[in-house]
Amino acid sequence: MEAALEAFVALKEVGEPSLGGWWAGLIIGLVVVVVVVLVVSVLLVLAFRINAQARAAARELEAIRSTTKPLVELRRTNDTLQSILRGARTARQALGG
Length: 97
What we know:
This protein is mostly helical.
């Protein structure tokens, strides 16, 4: 009991505990939370913009693909014409021309 009384007297001599440290910690914590929220908000806005641009690019690539698809057929046509030309040259040589 005597030890508790001595501890109480020692606490009384120190005085009232200061709450300044608690307020400073609370304010610093709130500032950190606000900064994190702002950074995450900016990142989300940028992510949505990138998503919109990526979707637009995908639409454009699909349009380009559908526009250039006939070029594959052009190669087949070119191969066929080369074959006909070789046949015509062979026929000309066979006829003595």
